[in-house]
């Protein structure tokens, strides 16, 4: 009898951790392991603002899957549809070829995409901070705005190119604004004819407070640090529309701007919508043991799953953080081993350890285990947490070395131009339109 096939969709925190644990707990004759991922790395998302600002190299935050996984077969592509009745997943490989992958057990960890709203122009003129390609594009783009502003004799064009808008007051938006503002203000000293007073950064969020999950004191401290650096923080407002060279806010302000960075939350991967299953705000509803009701052999976890937060109780669901995704990956692996061997499954439960927000330099705000920290102690905790969460010694060494080199030598303001000819929209970077309808899924599975 053939060993059951465990198919894992997604190589992020949840998917890679699940595969890694399964390799340790199941022998080769007990299960065949396959992982579907369009990239051959696990991306450490919390450090993307460091990549966008050039403090870290892209390789530092991209942990190779093949360094972590020894006997899991990696399918180079993305899942674009699922047929639970046929126990089949349609995969579009990186060369465009479509194949059907069969499974006995399916682990869904497709992650999330940048949340978009029906705001005119955002789909064409905004870019997120969810992928390495986006981070690399943002760095090139921001430096190119300085280059073009310095070369322009038009004050109107300079105002557009030296004004930057970040939407989203969560940790991703705050860190992105903090790091890129430091980059531009340091870089402008290398540009004769430009002055730091011409650089204007705006952080916009519809919520009344920055990072409410950190508490009022730390949120206000973060805002104080940003404002002291010159970042204009606008709360209780959002974007009404965007064009190539303006951003209009809901309070009727029109900002001349050619850079709109969108970090206003995340939405589950569109892959979830291809399933005829119950969702909670787009996230797949799962039991506490991470199984999906009504879908035989399917587990779901990470950003795309509404996992009950038993530590908080009530109707709470786990937030879409790396911390929960990693631990859910471990829990899913334990339950898959139990399922393969015929043992009962156990529920996922984890008490949140808090958040860390790195604002660059020696500035940070952190709340580890409920303890509120600011300044250098918070920065030590933040960077120590990130180094501990990176999954290989090589990644930790690269990251620590990059931080050290940047602290000593400063930034180099180099445009790589790798993304120069690439369309820079959320859809192009995050492939949100790549998924099939249920009818298309059925036809392809039947044909296979």
From TrEMBL:
Residues 5-329 form the FAD/NAD(P)-binding domain. Keywords: FAD, Flavoprotein, NAD, Oxidoreductase. The keyword Ribosomal protein does not apply. The keyword Transcription does not apply. Belongs to the NADH dehydrogenase family. This is FAD-dependent oxidoreductase. It comes from Streptomyces atriruber.
């Amino acid at each position: 009898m053939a060993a059951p096939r465990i198919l894992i969709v997604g190589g992020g925190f949840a998917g890679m951790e699940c595969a890694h644990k399964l390799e340790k707990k199941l022998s080769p004759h007990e299960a065949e392991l396959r992982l579907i991922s369009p990239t051959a790395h696990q991306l450490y998302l919390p450090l993307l603002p460091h990549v966008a600002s050039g403090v870290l190299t892209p390789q530092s935050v991209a942990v190779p899957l093949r360094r972590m996984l020894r006997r899991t077969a990696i399918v180079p592509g993305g899942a674009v549809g699922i047929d639970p009745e046929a126990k089949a997943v349609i995969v579009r490989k990186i060369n465009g070829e479509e194949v059907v992958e069969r499974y006995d057990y399916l682990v869904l960890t497709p992650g999330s995409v940048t949340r978009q709203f029906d705001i005119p122009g955002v789909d064409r003129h905004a870019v997120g901070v969810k992928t390495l390609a986006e981070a690399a594009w943002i760095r090139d783009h921001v430096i190119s705005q300085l280059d073009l502003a310095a070369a322009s004799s038009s004050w109107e064009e300079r105002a557009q190119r030296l004004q930057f808008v970040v939407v989203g007051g969560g940790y991703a938006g705050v860190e992105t604004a903090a790091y890129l503002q430091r980059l531009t203000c340091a870089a402008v000293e290398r540009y004769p004819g430009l002055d730091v007073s011409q650089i204007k950064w705006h952080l916009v969020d519809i919520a009344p407070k920055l990072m409410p999950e950190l508490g009022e004191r730390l949120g206000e401290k973060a805002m104080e640090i940003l404002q002291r650096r010159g970042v204009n923080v606008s709360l209780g407002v959002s974007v009404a529309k965007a064009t190539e060279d303006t951003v209009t806010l809901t309070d009727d302000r029109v900002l001349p701007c050619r850079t709109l960075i969108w970090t206003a939350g995340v939405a589950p991967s569109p892959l979830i919508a291809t399933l005829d299953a119950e969702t909670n705000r787009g996230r797949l509803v799962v039991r506490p043991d991470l199984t999906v009701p009504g879908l035989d052999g399917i587990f779901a976890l990470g950003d795309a799953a509404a996992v009950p937060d038993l530590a908080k109780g009530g109707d709470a669901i786990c937030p879409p953080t790396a911390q929960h995704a990693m631990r859910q990956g471990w829990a899913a692996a334990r339950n898959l081993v139990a399922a393969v061997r015929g043992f009962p499954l156990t529920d996922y439960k984890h008490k949140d350890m808090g958040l860390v927000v790195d604002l660059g330099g020696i500035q940070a705000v952190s709340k580890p285990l409920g303890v509120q920290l600011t300044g250098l102690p918070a920065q030590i905790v933040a960077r120590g947490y990130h180094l501990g969460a990176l999954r290989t010694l090589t990644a930790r060494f690269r990251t620590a070395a990059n931080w050290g080199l940047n602290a000593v030598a400063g930034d180099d303001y180099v445009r790589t131009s790798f993304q120069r000819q690439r369309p820079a929209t959320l859809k192009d970077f995050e492939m949100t339109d790549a998924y099939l309808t249920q009818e298309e899924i059925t036809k392809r599975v039947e044909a296979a």
